[in-house]
From TrEMBL, chains A, B:
Lineage: superkingdom: Bacteria
Annotated signal peptide: none
Keywords, ordered alphabetically: Oxidoreductase
Protein name as it appears in the record: NADP-dependent oxidoreductase
PANTHER family: PROSTAGLANDIN REDUCTASE, PROSTAGLANDIN REDUCTASE 1
All residue ranges annotated as the Enoyl reductase (ER) domain in the record: 17-329
Gene3D superfamilies: Medium-chain alcohol dehydrogenases, catalytic domain, NAD(P)-binding Rossmann-like Domain
Taxonomic classification: Bacteria, Pseudomonadati, Pseudomonadota, Gammaproteobacteria, Alteromonadales
Any Pfam family hit: ADH_zinc_N
InterPro entries: ADH-like_C (IPR013149), ADH_N_2 (IPR041694), ER (IPR020843), GroES-like_sf (IPR011032), MDR_fam (IPR045010), NAD(P)-bd_dom_sf (IPR036291)
Length: 333, 333
């Protein structure tokens, strides 16, 4: 059986290009114990992937040169040596950027294609949804009536953060790029206001949309926007550091937040999160979020691009802000 | 009755100079209700004073142009219209940079010159001690066996932070400038190790003195040292932002911590503190610290410079790292 894979060929300096990838056509090997063969249907593209391409200590091992690129994905089991999984089951797991995954069943779990379209298991019902849920509620600790600001607000994590904050009774302001995304946040997702960072000053936008200051900031982007928000935080504000997509392709030093002393002035807190820490509680969170979805309080949007071969270019859409909703790669059959 | 005062003449750009001050000889006015006249004996010189000279929103109002410079101080009451205070009482309060303070008794409290030398009420028994106590214990939350690093370690706050961390069973590493200070930290205060930032690489020093990483970092200095520590923090580390003396005289933007994404990787927290928030609990803290002093577990050092007139230059010793212990200005009589 044939497979198609993207292997990491070299570590990028700055933006990843085609040269950093090796597209390989390989033969699928036979299964060992407790393994499955999965026909990969959808692959999750996430900003964190940029970090996994770098060498050095992080919250997870880097992808090694010559390895299949790490990625979450959903697909259909076609062969199994684990009695808990059968051909025909749909599963979510770290399937990698490839058409067929031969993978241990450890860490794999089943998903139901009748309950939700498959790409949704990579978005609101997957890691981005969990990141939003735990990052906002546990670390951000929003209280009724507080102002919550989220960057990357039309993205997979940000859009869920904003909607959960609304459910919790907060005033919610999203920062996103372009009028279409900003309109979507307000008209479709019920955000109170949106700031279009591509066409207006974020500083001025925060002034006009957050007259009572910012109590919780959920940051997906870092850079100048983080610094702008720091000038508007309230006493005892909580800043959740989820990512810094503006900085991931830097060839120079990361821009540290020059206004970090606002933490001192306001006795505020900046705290990093990694979703995997909450793995034990995913079930409870998924149940609550499913309830919100059923009630129409939590909406989701996926941006599906077809063609495994397009992976190198499709991934870059994240860093140009070209995706609108959770970015998913559909494997052509 | 004659007074001598330092008024803020202009707002400094970068380092404050003589030109930013007006030395005034004035007449003391008569007392209003619930006021006292205090013969100021010792004036506290603190890094925070640099911030009070700037315009703009902070945790406290800026000193206005033409106003007496704000400063904590201890002195002897010479006249009172408040039945709770009598001539001869020694008091601590915001007495200002002047020889005589005509001041409301609100916020003033008595100190006992027989229990401790007066300058000590400006150090370990005053705001710096309280800052260390609450900043370390409430925000830093050190646990037995953890590694605590403190910068400005031979200063008024840092030296107390390190000693309290030792009392709590931590491994303690201090960062200070010069061999004399480093020797003092180890030999007199019982720190486990010291890094001399003036003569060695802080990064290398952290590597060798913190083989198990850093669990709590109490930061008084900001700048490159904060960035160096960020590369060595452990999972769920706590960084207490107490000050950033390296940045206070900047004429360019504050250097934000480029390595702040280490907070994400390590799910760590960076939190600012302002001592005044704990005012209700000063009494309890003072009692516990007095116990430690009596047991010889908590030592203090004051650096006393005599002569009110020297104030502009003596203040600058803080920013050059020239003080050794809590810097106090003794008013000449």
């Amino acid at each position: 059986m044939k497979n198609r894979q993207y292997l990491l060929a070299s570590r990028p300096v700055g933006k990843p290009t085609r040269e950093n990838w090796e597209y390989a056509e390989t033969e699928v090997e036979g299964l060992g114990d407790n393994e499955v063969l999965v026909n990969v249907e959808y692959i999750s593209l996430d900003p964190a992937m940029r970090g996994w391409m770098n060498e050095g200590k992080s919250y997870i091992e880097p992808v090694q040169i010559g390895e299949v690129m790490r990625a979450g994905g959903v697909g259909k089991v076609i062969e199994s040596t684990d009695p808990n999984f059968s051909a025909g089951d749909y599963v979510y797991g770290q399937l990698g950027v490839q058409a067929v995954a031969k993978i241990s069943t450890q860490g794999l779990h089943k998903v139901d294609p009748d309950l939700a379209p498959l790409p949704r298991y990579l978005g609101v019902l997957g890691m981005p949804g969990m990141t939003a849920y735990f990052g906002l509620l546990e670390t951000g600790q929003p209280k009724d009536g507080e102002t919550v600001v989220v960057s990357g607000a039309a993205g997979a994590v940000g859009s869920v953060v904003g909607q959960i904050a609304k459910i919790k009774g907060c005033r919610v302001v999203g920062i996103a790029g372009g009028k279409e995304k900003c309109d979507y946040l307000i008209n479709e997702l019920g955000f109170d206001a949106a700031i279009d960072y591509k066409n207006e000053s974020v500083k001025d936008g925060l002034k006009s949309t957050c007259p009572d200051g910012v109590d919780v900031y959920f940051d997906n982007v870092g850079g100048d926007i983080l610094d702008d928000v720091l000038t508007r935080i309230n006493l005892r504000a909580r800043i959740v550091i989820c990512g810094a997509i503006s900085q991931y392709n830097n060839t120079t030093e990361v821009k540290g937040p020059s206004n970090y002393l606002s933490l001192l002035v306001n006795r505020a807190r900046m705290e990093g999160i990694v979703v995997f820490d909450n793995a034990k509680h995913y079930g409870k969170a998924a149940q609550e979020m499913a309830g919100w979805i059923a009630q129409g309080k939590l909406k989701a949007k996926e941006h599906v691009v077809e063609g495994l071969e397009t992976f190198p270019e499709t991934l870059m859409m994240l860093f140009e802000g070209e995706n609108f909703g959770k970015l998913v790669l559909k494997v052509d059959s």
